[in-house]
């Protein structure tokens, strides 16, 4: 039997200096990643790791992993970061595309969909909500302070601890963070601090109604950065929102849940719609240049008009 051909892969720089990786071919899916120590193009093991995250969605799509641009204004907000993506998307694509954001990338994706609804066809928000939870916000700011004060091991131990689903996994992950912290933050730049501050000030609850794209919010009930209620509020506040909430999953384990990939794919390509709906026609990518180089969750804000959700069962709607 002949070997399966590898999926097409490219990497380079998007308009505005945003580093990208792309894998697969077909309908575009824009992936906004979580927090990174810097906004330089990933290389070596980091590039391979980031690419592996995209592969489950690349069988019938070209998945674009696009990070925030380097050299952010120190006072940049989430709206400013989303505007960078919007400008680049208008130059790269001929119409709205599906967007998936994970963790910090999910916060950016929510802002993008609220501020630039014409650019987003379908939206998937993974391990993110309309604001960080109290513990998530406090931890992120401690991480920033530790990095600035020259304590990379402490910073990464704290960050990794928050990825766990319970006390046991949090202890293990914290220990791994302590061991790897010096290397992980060795090339951290001011963009890390800027992004953390931007997310600290991020609160989109009152804007959720401006998101017109069909939206799937995916979260873990034991995510230390958020709370189940924050995930529920986010899905309920978006007019065409739905929620997949996984029991016993933390920030890291949400994407390893066996339901995750099928939930996302069935949402992006519902069986009763052609793959290119609801926009009607496929979105074309502009020709790319040759690669240049490689509650604890915060104050609850219940809405009087918010519809009740049924967590993972809501996918059946």
The DSSP helix count reads 9
Count up the domains. Answer: 1
How many E strands? 8
Report on the biggest sheet: 8 strands, mixed
Q: Any idea what the radius of gyration is?
A: 19 Å
List the keywords.
317 residues; alpha/beta; Rossmann fold; 8-stranded mixed β-sheet; 9 helices; disordered N terminus
General description of the model:
By secondary structure, this protein is α/β, with parallel strands linked by helices. The protein has one domain: Rossmann fold. Helices cover 35% and strands 15% of the residues. Strands 1-2-4-3-5-6-7-8 form an 8-stranded mixed beta sheet, sandwiched between helices. The longest helix is centred in the middle third of the chain and has 18 residues. The N and C termini lie far apart (41 Å).
Please provide a brief summary of the model.
The protein has 317 residues and is of the alpha/beta class. The protein is built from nine helices and eight strands.
Could you outline the blueprint of secondary structure elements for this entry?
Elements: E1 9-14, E2 18-23, E3 27-32, H1 44-54, E4 61-66, H2 78-92, E5 97-102, H3 104-115, E6 120-126, H4 134-148, H5 152-161, H6 167-184, H7 190-200, E7 215-220, H8 228-237, E8 241-246, H9 260-268
